[in-house]
Amino acid sequence: MLDLKRLSREINSKIQEINDRESLEVIKTNYLGKKGIITEAFKILGQIDPEKRKSFAAELNLIKSDLLNDINNFQSKINFKEIETKLKLETVDITLPVNEIRRGKIHPVSQVIDELTSIFSEIGFSVAEGPDIENEFNNFTALNTPEHHPARDMHDTFYLDDDKKFLLRTHTSPVQIRTMLKNKPPIKIIAPGRTYRCDSDMTHTPMFHQLEGLHIGEEVNMGHLKGCLEFFLKKFFEDDNLEMRFRPSHFPFTEPSAEVDISYKLENNKIVVGKGDKWLEVLGCGMVHPNVLRNVKINPKKFQGYAFGLGIDRLAMLKYGITDLRSFFNGDLRWSEHYGFDANDVPTNYRGLSK
Amino acid sequence: MKLTISWLKKHLRTKASSKVIEKALTNIGLEVEQIIKLDENLQLFKIAKILKTEKHPNADKLKICEIDIGNKKLKVVCGAENARSGLTTVYAQPGAIIPKNKMKLVVAKIRGVESNGMLCSASELGVSDESAGIIEILNKKIGQNFFNKSESVFDLSITPNRSDCLGIRGIARDLSAYGLGTLSLEKKILVKEQSRKKIKVDIKKNSGCYSFGTIVIENVKNCESPGWLKKDIESLGLKSISAIVDVTNYIMFDLNRPMHAYDADKIEGNIIVRESENNECFEALDDKKYNVFSSSCLITDNKKILGLGGIIGGKSSAISFKTKNIILEAAAFDPVKIAKVSKHLGIVTDAKYRFERGVDPNSITIGLKNAAKLIQEICGGKISKINIHGNNKYKKKRVKFYLDYFKKLIGFSINAKDCKNILEKLGFKIKVSKKFLDLEVPSWRPDINQEADIVEEILRIKGLDKIESIKPETFKAKPTLNFHQKLFHMVQRSFASRGFFETISWSFTNSKYNEYYGDQAAKISNPISSDLDVLRSSNFVNLIIQAKSNLDRSHFNLQMFEVGPIFNSDLSQEIIASGILVGKKINSTWTESDRDFNIFDAKENLNYILTDLGLSPNELVIEKSDKNYYHPGQSGDIFLGDKKGPKIGSFGTIHPIILQKMDIQNTNIYGLEVYLDNFVEPKKPLRISKKQLLRSDFQNVERDFAFILDKNVLAADLISNIKKTDPLIKSIKVFDVYEGDNIEKEKKSLALKVLFEPSDKTLTDKEIDILSEKVILAAKSIGGSLRSK
What we know:
CATH class of the largest domain in chain A: Alpha Beta
Shape of chain B: elongated
Number of domains of chain B: 6
CATH topology of the largest domain in chain B: BirA Bifunctional Protein, domain 2
CATH superfamily of the largest domain in chain B: Bira Bifunctional Protein, Domain 2
Oligomer: heterodimer
Strand content of chain B: 25-35%
CATH architecture of the largest domain in chain A: 2-Layer Sandwich
Largest sheet of chain B: 7 strands, mixed
Number of strands of chain B: 42
Structural class of chain A: alpha+beta
Strand order of the largest sheet of chain B: 28-31-32-38-37-36-35
Order of helices and strands of chain A: HHHHHEEHHEHEEHEEEEHEHH
Number of domains of chain A: 2
Largest sheet of chain A: 8 strands, mixed
Shape of chain A: rod-shaped
Largest interface: A-B, 90 and 98 residues
CATH topology of the largest domain in chain A: BirA Bifunctional Protein, domain 2
Distance between the termini of chain B: 92 Å
C-alpha cells in the first residue's frame, strides 16, 4: 500500500522546485496524469481493505486537492511573470510627439460680436440686420442728414452708382430705419455688422464693424440709455468699477447726443482700461431725433427712445490688447493663431464672457 | 478750432484757471482734443546779470562769470570779450538745446573749472546773425524768460452743428452760460466816415449769394502785423501774411465771420456776383488754377473773376504790401452751394468750412466795422460808409419749450429759473408763459429748430452727470437670434471646430480676380484703390488672395474660412460661409506619412458642417456643380431633399486655371461653401420633429459585395438603388474602389458592406440569402455584375 505520508512529503519538496511552466507540467503529469501516481492510487482503491479504504481515500483526496491548489497558484504566478516580462518589452518613449493638432480659430471680431450679443440679450435686445448695400435715404436722409449736410462729408462714402443713390453703408444706423419702418414700437434691437468708409491709414480701414442699438417705447428716456450703457460697458470690460463719463456731442440723428468715455491709464505703453487719469471715447449715443421718428412714420409725441453706436473692432482691440487694426483683415494666420478664439470658447452669461 | 486763454479773455471775464476751463469746455460739448504746450525748451533761457568776472586760471581767453538769475547765483565759464560785470544777458541752463546748433548743454568742466550752463550770443539764440560776444539786454527783469511766453493752445473738436463756436466769442458765450464768467458786452464801434467812395455791387439771380456787404478804406499803408496780432494769428496755426489779411482772418476766428479784402485798384468797374458758366477758369490765392463748373457763385468785376464766393479769393485782386486802397467784403452765401462747389473742386478753406456750417447772417455789419476799425488802427486810411446789397433772407425762429418735455425725455426735472438763466446767456430771447417758454432763437444758431434742440442746450449746460441711470429691464419680447442668425453663429463655430481659421476680408476686391467668379460684379464708383474696385462675387476671391500671402510666407498647409456677404451686379447680396483647404492634411510624422488634402476632405468637412447646422446626410442630394470656378470633373452641388430642393452647399477643387492666373503654384485648393440664405426654417424645431429611438434586439448581419460597373455609374446611384430594395437594409458603406488590372478598361469595381438590421426576429440563413439576392439584382439593374472572387 502507498505510503501517503511519504507521498505528501515528496510532493511538497517537488513543488518547491517548480520555477517555470515546464517543471509544473512535469509534476502535473507525474502525479495527476493518466498514469500519474495519484491517478493510479485512485484506481486501486477497490483493492484496499474496506476498513482502511475510507480514511485512505480521504487522505488521498486531500493530497490531490492540495496539489491542485498549489498547481493553480503556481500557474497564475507564472502567468503574471510572463505578462510582466512582455510588458517590459512593450515600453514606448512617451516623450515622442503626437500628430499635429489642427485647432481652428474664431476671429476676434466674431468673438466680440458674440460677447455683445450675450450681454444685450440679458437686457432684452434681439438682433436685427440690414444689407451692406444701402440706399442714400436709409443711410443719410432718413437719419436727418440731408444732402450737403457737413456730417455727410465726415463719412467718406463708397458709392455704387453715379447718381449716388446706392452706397456701402457708412454706419449701422440705417438698420434703425429699416427696423422702424418694418415694426411698430416697442422696439429693442442691436445690429452688428460691416460698415465702410473710403478711408485708409494706420488707424482706419475701408471696412470695419459697428454695433447699433435702438430702444423705442413710450417712456424710454435718457436715464434708461445711461443705465443700459453702464450695464453694457461694465459687463463687456468685466469690471464692475469701470469709470465712465457721458459728454455732450452731436449726431444728426439723435438729440440730445452724447459720447461715452471710459477711463484708462498707460502701463508700459499699453492701455489698461478701468481706472486712470485719461479718457477714451468708446461710443456715441443719444435720444432718437424727432425728425428721424417722423421719417419712419412714428409719432414723436407718443414714442421716444434712445440709440447708440459703437466700433466693434476698436472694442476688441481695447479688451484684448490688440494694437494693429489693419491686421484684422489681412488673413495672416500667425495673427489668427495668436489673437483668435477656440471654437468651443462661446461667451455666455453663466460661464462668463472670456476664459 | 484752436483757442488760447488770452484770446478767450477778450470776450469772457473769468478768473477760472486753464485747467478748469479745459474741463468745462469738454463738459459742455466743446471737447478739448489736445493741448498744444508751449515749447518747454525755450523756458530754459533766462535773463541773467553778470555780478563779477575773473580770469580763468588755465586759459587766457576765458572768464569765470558769477551771474544772478533771480532766484540763485551761479558760476559760468565764458569766452566772450564783452562779458563784464553789470551786463544783463541771456543764460541757458544745463539741459537747454541751443536754437542755432541744436546742441544740448550739460554741466561740464572747461579746462578744469566747472560751468553750470552758458551765456549766449544773439546768433546762438537764433534771434539775429550777431555772433560777436554775448547778447546785451536792456530793460528786462533778471530771472525772466528770454523768449516770449507762447501760450498753450487748446485744440477743440467742434461738432458740425456748432458753427457759432468756430468763433472765439461763441465759445466764450457757452462758457458764460456754464457759469464760468461773464460775456463781455458787444463794443459799440464808432467808425468815422471819412471816405465817400462806394463800390457798386450787382447780385444776379441764382448766384448763391444772399447779401453782400462792403466797406472801402482809402490810403492804407499795409504792413507787417503788430506783435499781438501776429501772436494771435500764429496761435491758430496760421501764417501771418500782412496786417490787412491778418485782420480779416482775425475777425473770422474771433466772431465766426469770414471776410475778404480786395485791392480796390485792381478791380475794374463794378462787382458782379453771379452764377458761373461751365468751365470758367481763375487763379486762386492758393496759387492753383481752378476750372469752375456751372452754378458756382462767382465774384467778378466787369472783366475778370475776383474769387469763388465764400470759398477762396482770386489772385487778380490780392492784397499786397503795395496795396493803397481796399474793399472789405462780408457776405451771406447759400451753405449748400458752398459745400457742393468746394467739394467738387477739392478746396478746403476756413471760410468755406464756416459758411457750409452756418455763419450768422446778421454779422455782416459788425464784421465790417470791426475789421475796418482794426485796419485803420494799424494801417491808417479813410473809411467809407457800409454798403449792403441784397437781402440776407434771415427769418427769426421761435420755439416753444415745455419744461415737462425735458423731464419726459431726460428723466430729471429742471426749474424754469435755471432754464431761463441758461438760455438767456446763450442768447435766446424769452417770453415766459404759464406752461412753456416762448423762445426766439439767436441768429447765430442755425442748428436750433425744435424743442428737442432746446432740451440738448439745457442738458449740456446742466451736465450729463445729472442724469440718473435706470437699471435695465431683463424682459425680452423676441428671441435674441432668429433662425438665420443662429446658422451664422453655428457655421462659424463648426468651421473652427474642424480646424479652420476664421478670416474677415474686405467686401470688395480686385476686378481682375473677381471676374473668374462672376460675369458681372457691382462696381464701386470711387474705389479706395484700383485693386479694390468691385464688390466680391465670391468669398473665394479674397480667401485665395489671403491664402497666397500665407503661402508666400511659407505657410503651406492652410485651412481658412470666412462667413460674409457676396454681391451681385443687381446690388443684391447673399451670406455665404466658405472654406478652403490648401496643402497637406497630414505632415509626415514618425507615425504617419504625408497626405495631401483632396476633394473628399472638402466634402467630409461640408458634411460635418451641414450636420452641425441640423441637416442629416440622408436628406442631401449631390449633383455635378454648375459653378465654373470649380474643376469641372471635381465639384458638386448639394441640394436638400431632391434636385429641385434648395441648393445649400458646394464643394470642389478650385479651377486650376484660376490658381494659375492668381500665380499660385504647386498646390491645389479645395473649397467648400454653405449657402446660409437658402436654408429654410423647419416648421417644427428639431426637438419636436425628432423621431422616437427604435432599437432592434436582434443580431445585425453584415455582408460584403463587390460589383463590376461601368466607370460612369455613380456610387450614389448604386447605393440608393440597393437601399430601395428592402427596409431591412440599414446601411451601405463603400470600402473599396478599384480600376485597373484584372478589370475591363471602361469598368470599375465597387466593394460594399451592407448591413441588414432585423426588426422582429433573428434572420435565418435563408432570409439572408434572399436579401443578398435582392442586393445583387439591384446592382444588376444599373449594369452591375458581381465580381468573381
